[in-house]
Design a protein that fits this description.
Order of helices and strands: HHH
Distance between the termini: 25 Å
Number of helices: 3
CATH architecture: Orthogonal Bundle
Radius of gyration: 23 Å
Helix content: over 70%
Structural class: mainly alpha
Largest sheet: none
Strand content: under 5%
């Protein structure tokens, strides 16, 4: 089952692709009255789009770290309960549910990261 593509990733990718095409048309095809100014403008817009994309990726990596922290914390709690001999089914169930939710979140984030993989595909 595949989840829908992340609209933010799609918008960012479209923006970067558009700026790349604009730069290509200036550099390769010479489609500008003043190629230097046009190229500088396209480059500035591309830089802005790349910064926005980097911020998006940074947000996703932060979300991944949060999910990993949940998994790690729950594993540590289970280990402590086991060491103390206080591990009961209710505690295990809570930990399993939290770990499952964190794994679901990580899978979603990974899917969103995959949406950004094809940035240079036409």
């Amino acid at each position: 089952m595949s989840s829908p593509r992340d609209p933010t990733a799609i918008i960012l990718l479209a923006s970067i692709r558009g700026h790349l095409r604009a730069a290509e048309s200036v550099l390769i095809l010479g489609e500008a009255d003043d190629p230097v100014t046009a190229c500088e403008a396209a480059l500035a817009e591309l830089r802005a789009a790349v910064i926005e994309h980097d911020q998006y990726i940074h947000g996703l990596s932060h979300d991944l770290r949060n999910a990993l922290t949940t998994i790690s914390g729950q594993a540590q709690l289970l280990g402590r309960y086991l060491a103390k001999g206080t591990l009961d089914p209710a505690r295990v169930q809570i930990a399993v549910e939290r770990i499952d939710e964190a794994v679901r979140q990580m899978n979603e984030i990974i899917h969103r990261l995959n949406d950004t993989d094809d940035i240079y595909d036409p």
